What we know:
Elements (H helix, E strand, L loop, with lengths): L1 H18 L1 E6 H7 L21 E5 L4 E9 L3 H11 L16 E8 L10 E5 L4 H5 L6 H19 L3 H7 L9 H9 L7 E4 L2 E17 L2 E13 H7 L5 H12 L5 E4 L3 E5 L5 E8 L1
Parallel strand pairs: 3-4
Antiparallel strand pairs: 1-2, 2-3, 4-5, 6-7, 7-8, 8-11, 9-10, 10-11
Helix pairs in contact: 2-5, 5-6, 5-9, 6-7
Amino acid sequence: xxxxDFGVGFTTWFLNQxxxxxxxxxxxxxxNTLSPGACxxxxxxxxxxxxxxxxxxxxxxxxxxxxxxxxGQCSRKALLDSMEAGVPQKTNVQALGGTQLQHSLVAxxxxxxxxxxxxxxxxxxxxxxxxFRDRLSHxxxxxIGRSVSQVAHAKELAMLELxxxxxxxxxxxxxxxxxTSAIGxxxxxxxAPNRQIATDGLRVEREYRWSESAKVAENLxxxxxxxxxxxxxxxxxxxxxxxxxxxxxxxxxxxxLGKNWIVEQSETSVALQSPxxxxxxxxxxxx
Length: 287
């Protein structure tokens, strides 16, 4: 549902601005990159109280938090009921190391429909239950932070049309064993028309045109959007030489600590630089 997408998008942005969360990594993929059997989610159910929490988040100082996101457009009460149901989902991370969680949150966004008297609201809950903070064993904060970085950076590599490298980084089933072989497959792919290797690195550009123009501001009519992404040349070369996914994840985590996203925006574009190095830009195409 669109309300669910907005619920994730707005709450993760809000928590970036207020608590400094920099990386958001899907819980089950974080678990998947750690040693098999040593760290598990209580359930991989898609819905209900046995569902795994959405994300393990990390701030720029390396502190870890668990986050479950909700969204709704029926009523504020319905959102609060949904958030209450999300509380037990946070307990489904059974082992995150002898590591203390900085926060264990349930966050929700209510978007009113046009005839609803209630106003929009973001609600953040941090229930004080010892079980959220005590179920930690097996792994250190550094190991989990490395895994979080692997998953977060893998999402960026997927956006840059490096799917094999992204899959290897998160240890996806059937992926390549080494980073070098994965990046080799990606760079040799013939069907990558939106991607090119330039002197300053790898570049991706995709353009989306709409069937009808849209007025988004008083003096701005747009007919589509353009997405641009780039990976520095040094990172492309490093991917060619690193074998173990964990080694690359550790390097990227070390480089990213203390950094935040860099944002530059104008009336018609927004540019982002990740703490890992890649750059992304979305441009509104004026009519």
